[in-house]
Amino acid sequence: MNTTFMKITVATIIAGTTLFSGTASAASKVETAATNQYKALKAGMTMEQVAKVLYGKDYKKQLTTKNGSQVLKTKEELKDVEDKRKEIYYEIYDRKAKIPPTLISLGFMTKKNDSVYRLISKQVEMGRNTYSEYRESTRKLNAGAKIKTGMTEKQLDGVLSGSGLGEWAGLSEGDARSVFSTKEIKEYKIETHKGKLYVFQKSTKSRIYVDLAYDAKKKKYVVVDHETATF
């Protein structure tokens, strides 16, 4: 599983642009638990509030203080300071597993000249022992059909076998408004983002990765990118 496939960046959130860039069985208990944690995490949460969601009653053991800010004990993937705001990013998964069953990525930022980190981005991915190493949908691309940018979920469903899109491989959300003033939100054109990743079968050893993003004006998810890989 490529742990950077759906990586959220602060620049992406501020600019308001979109991300990115076998047979699947029913969701496992581990996948269900990760999905529930993902849903419980809300933009603007402090590091302590996030730790409570991730670690339950033992959350305090997973927290420490560095450079005046409360952070998770797990090693960060990235840490930076920009425009007097601190940023820190984590990827939480089983590092001993060849294919981690789940991966949760979290991005935090402080307000200008502040020490309290607040959640600005979250992402969850599901890993499986498949060609793509993602949880793949059981839906297949119909013979001769093509997936096009701008398609709605209903239109995408129309070029796939079965009914519905099947299981997703990843979900992502970005919302940095909690660390910016109303003036800054307007000036920097800070927008929220919601995305989904699906992996469909094109042929026996060919998979098509499809990224969808929520269009606030249309109030629908639309295809923003798609890529085919052969194994």
Report what the structure shows.
34% of the residues are buried. It is globular, with a radius of gyration of 18 Å. It contains five helices and ten strands, in the order H-H-H-E-E-E-E-E-E-H-E-H-E-E-E. Helices cover 16% and strands 33% of the residues. The protein has one domain (10-230). By secondary structure, it is an alpha+beta fold.
Briefly say what this structure is:
The protein is α+β, with helices and mostly antiparallel strands. It has one domain. It contains five helices and ten strands.
Chain-wise SSE layout:
Elements: H1 10-15, H2 29-40, H3 47-55, E1 63-66, E2 69-72, E3 78-82, E4 85-93, E5 102-109, E6 118-126, H4 153-157, E7 170-174, H5 182-187, E8 193-203, E9 206-215, E10 220-230
Antiparallel strand pairs: 1-2, 3-4, 4-5, 5-6, 6-7, 7-8, 8-9, 9-10
Rough outline: globular
* SS field, number of helical segments: 5
How many separate domains make up the residues?
1
> Strand-residue fraction?
25-35%
Strand order of the largest sheet: 3-4-5-6-7-8-9-10
The SSE string, one letter per element, is: HHHEEEEEEHEHEEE
* Strand tally: 10
Mean residue pLDDT: 90
Q: Which radius of gyration do the C-alpha atoms yield?
A: 18 Å
Biggest sheet features: 8 strands, antiparallel
Q: Into which percent range does the helicity of residues fall?
A: 10-25%
Distance between the termini: 14 Å
Judged by helices, strands and strand pairing, the structural class is alpha+beta
Sequence stretches where pLDDT stays below 50 over 5 or more residues: 2-24
